[in-house]
Amino acid sequence: MPYRFADSSAEAVPLHVIAADALGGWLGDQSERTRAWVAATGFQGAIGEALLLPGDDGTPEAALIGYGTPAARKRGRFALAAGVGKLGTATYRIASGLPDEAAAEEALGWLLSGYAFTRYAGTAPQIAQLVAPEGVDAARIEILAEAEALTRDLVNAPASDMGPEELEGAARDLAQTFSASISVTSGAELESGFPMIHAVGRASPRAPRLIDMRWGDSGPALTLVGKGVCFDTGGLNLKPGSSMGLMKKDMGGAANVLGLAHAIMALKLPVRLRVLIPAVENSVAGDSFRPQDILHSRKGLTVEINNTDAEGRLVLADALALADEETPDLIVSMATLTGAARVAVGPDLAPFYTDDEPLAAALSSAGTAQADPLWRMPFWEPYEAKIEPGIADLDNAPAGGMAGSITAALFLRRFVTDSPRYAHFDIYAWNPAPLPARTKGGIAQGPRAILAALPEALKL
Known about the structure:
The protein is of the alpha/beta class. The protein has 16 helices and 19 strands. The chain has 2 domains: about 15-135, Leucine Aminopeptidase, subunit E, domain 1 (3-Layer(aba) Sandwich), CATH 3.40.220.10; about 145-455, Zn peptidases (Aminopeptidase, 3-Layer(aba) Sandwich). The strands form 4 sheets. Strands 6, 7, 8, 9, 10, 13, 14, 15 and 17 form a 9-stranded mixed β-sheet that branches. It has a 5-stranded mixed β-sheet with strand order 2-3-1-4-5, with helices on both faces. The chain has a 3-stranded mixed β-sheet with strand order 11-12-16. The longest helix has 19 residues, at about 140-155. It comes from Salipiger profundus.
């Protein structure tokens, strides 16, 4: 298994984590030979630096890895992962220099450095192995790495191999792994019970469906809803080619909730988990839904279509209505929903919305602690009028283009009326350039923070 720490009994090379301002102090305790070697190589303790210290026989007797300055560490995450690739394939044990409070983050980053999407070409990188640092929950970190890898694999898969049926298959595989139950609604039953999911997906030869997975029989009820638009052409409001190029990732919300579900089940959290994924392809054909159509929703609300490219909120709305009917203790939706969110906070932050102040505080704190940064956005009541077109109850794409992420979140909130707590995440699910522990491509945004916030949010 690639996302595993080395056995604690394994013979391991001592690894010293060297902050830039600590190098001099560390060298003061070393031999003249070591001081000369470090000086000759130019090692300064910067993030991304690593240095092997050879023994008499030429094999490493120890190694150094740069930890940079506090200012440099604030500008990124997973500082040790930046230098892992320079340590070869030996097994290492942290010997000094790593702060206890940073050990879990850095250990996770180390494991994630071994990820590569190799379904079609290439092989996973052969990185150095690490004995889990003392004091960390090694099993939990391994589960987090596996969950992240699942999310990345799903997002990275091209739409040709990740349509609604294949997304259902991934959910079924997960359900089988953890003995969860799963049901799927499609065909005439979908058309009558989830009319907006059907309307969005009906133009594709790859049939739309609603995936419903359940696990656990005691504890608070948690429902995760993930947008599963497996490819988004924009529909009749066709996207330009430059905007369509990344639309294989428009099921990133579904991928993120499946990764989160993996972690919840693997960790055996005492919750009653439900995962709902509306899986569709927004295609162009003679029976595509049209601008100015008025759709009926499962909730009974009518929706005027002013842009067929604002389809994610439509499929989520029907799934949220179903989730709300059971009034779970917490509903969380995740979706690659709006470009407005990316304009507001860029690709590295995951905006989230909730009216629940304790939940918001728990999520924000967990995001910082778990190196899974979040940014709270407002359900801004004065913008409610923007989503009320008059001819129908709701407008799926208000004119003007302002506050697009907020109006989308307000739209979704209209479908959660009975459940006590709701949080919505408008994520990007894509890393546009390689970073330490994060390859270019699909990424998880929010699941680690949500997972860490659940004990407080649900009183587990």
